[in-house]
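== Sequence and structure of one protein ==
=== Format: two labelled lines per protein ===
==== Data for this protein ====
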Amino acid sequence: MHSSEQIKRYNKLIDLITIKFNESISVKEVENITNYSYRNMNRIFTSLNKESIGKYIKRIRIEKAAENLKYTNNAIGDIAFKIGFNDLAVFNKAFKNKFGVSPSKFRNKANIQIISTAKKLNNESNLVQQKIDYKIELLPDFNILYIEHKGSYGDIKKITLTWSKLLNYAKKLAIIDDNSIFLAEILDDNHITDDLNCRYSAAIIIPESFTKIQNNLFRTKTIKSQKYIKFTHQGSHEKSHETYNLIFPFIFLNLKLELLDLPILEFYLNDEDNTPKEELLTEIYIPIK
């Protein structure tokens, strides 16, 4: 069992790594932000995260590289430098150790899979001709109260439990009303990140006056203004993958857009308790350049 102070210090370290994962994080920085010795903090981190600080940073870097290879046309050398590798040979070795193939082969395989999926869907549903409604939107800054689920995106039972915790806490704070906006952050690509490490944040938009709320489970942050391409999924959350399977080939075949390595946002428009599953609406915001 970990104390609230240990969880607080762990969260501070996660925030530091999220911001500086592509830089060299010194032992001193870790000790200054957590007020623990590096050795003790690493023990706490490993206990909570099932991997050491060093292994966590390395995994995040390599997975970010894989996402860039999959969704952008950036040069491999530029991607390696962007995520914190100054030596391309070292990057290539680390990447191959993680995914079993070189960065160039990984990119080629990802492109082939996208093209293959697009062709298959086009044969089945005439995807090139099919009109899929979308809209380009610039979202302003907004603040959220959130709780993170770590695990498979397909584990609806645990994600539902995560939402229950958030809603109960938000009710205690008296910040839920008929105008409340609920959303989720999808932080990882489950085709790249192992299910065990996939992160999903259940969230509610809150006024600026509430942005200092924090405790062991619930946190706050500002999502910065960003441009997105928006699609709408109608139906149950369990079937949202069917819409995603249409979205990315559609973008690939029809739109000249560069996707960004930022979380996908899902805005939930209906009260799930009072809406038939087939009528549920989810707005999917995919970040673009």
The chain has a mean pLDDT of 88. Residues 4-105 form a domain with the Arc Repressor Mutant, subunit A fold (CATH 1.10.10.60). The chain is about 45% helix and 20% strand. The longest strand covers residues 142-150.
